[in-house]
């Protein structure tokens, strides 16, 4: 049956060892039905920052639907190279959405933006993809994040209504080091293969990483961000 779907229907081959996510599980994630829609609206805002030419900055807003289930509510993206504009956008989104968790990509050019945002929003979480993993079977934090995202998708803890984000998740590849640790194909290699960087997928992954490992910050005191009425982050 799987061979038929792959050859004749054009569906991804789930038996491949290269791809991290099952297309069947991803399809279920698009159509999840939640048991308790009246659950406290805890939110996480995760932002993947552009590091190379042609990459996008992508922000993902993820909202709790029950004690174990979450939904990707919306994603915003921009390609403005001016870091001051990006800082303004992030502060503006934090003010609008009032998330309990905020995580920023702090690799490469993103580090200076993270430092600036941290000065305004002290509880901002730093994400370094190359940093050490919480999982012994993951090479680094990026692999840890994607394995965590896989857990949420496989266990039906996450609804992903964005077809575009799902399409990026479908081509995320994993591989193994000689010691057995899992690593994820680099963004540079993915861009060469598919003509785009998996910025939407990475942004979602970072949000689930924050939810999984930093939920203890949710009940800590909130950061009040009050914007000047004349402030325009897009100028």
What does this structure look like?
By secondary structure, the chain is an alpha/beta fold. 36% of the residues lie in helices and 17% in strands. It has a 6-stranded mixed β-sheet with strand order 5-4-1-2-3-6, sandwiched between helices.
Mean pLDDT: 87
Biggest β-sheet strands, sense, barrel? 6 strands, mixed
Structural class: alpha/beta
Question: Could you name the ranges where pLDDT drops below 50 across 5 or more consecutive residues?
Answer: 1-7, 225-235
Radius of gyration: 18 Å
Query: What is the helix tally?
Result: 8
Our measurement of the CA-to-CA distance between the termini, rounded to an integer number of angstroms, reads 54 Å
Task: Write down the overall geometry.
Answer: globular
Helix % is: 25-40%
How are the strands ordered across the major sheet?
Answer: 5-4-1-2-3-6
DSSP E strands, number? 8
- Estimated share of beta-strand residues: 15-25%
Secondary-structure element sequence?
A: HHEEEHEHEHEHEEHH
């Amino acid at each position: 049956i799987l061979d038929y779907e792959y050859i004749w229907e054009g569906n991804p081959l789930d038996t491949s060892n290269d791809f991290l996510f099952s297309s069947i599980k991803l399809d279920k994630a698009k159509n999840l039905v939640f048991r308790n829609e009246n659950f406290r609206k805890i939110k996480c805002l995760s932002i993947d920052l552009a590091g190379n030419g042609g990459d996008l900055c992508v922000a993902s807003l993820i909202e709790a639907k029950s004690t174990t289930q979450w939904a990707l509510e919306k994603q915003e993206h921009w390609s403005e190279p001016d870091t001051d504009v990006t800082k303004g956008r992030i502060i503006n989104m934090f003010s609008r959405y009032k998330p309990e968790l905020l995580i920023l990509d702090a690799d490469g050019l993103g580090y200076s933006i993270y430092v600036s945002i941290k000065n305004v929003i002290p509880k901002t979480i730093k994400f370094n993809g190359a940093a050490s993993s919480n999982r012994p079977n993951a090479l680094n934090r990026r692999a840890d994040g994607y394995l965590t995202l896989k857990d949420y998708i496989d266990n039906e803890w996450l609804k992903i209504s964005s077809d575009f984000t799902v399409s990026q998740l479908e081509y995320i590849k994993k591989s193994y080091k000689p010691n057995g640790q899992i690593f994820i194909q680099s963004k540079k290699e993915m861009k060469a293969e598919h003509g785009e960087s998996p910025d939407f997928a990475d942004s979602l992954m970072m949000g689930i990483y924050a939810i999984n490992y930093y939920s203890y910050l949710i009940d800590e005191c909130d950061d009040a961000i009050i914007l000047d009425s004349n402030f325009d982050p897009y100028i």
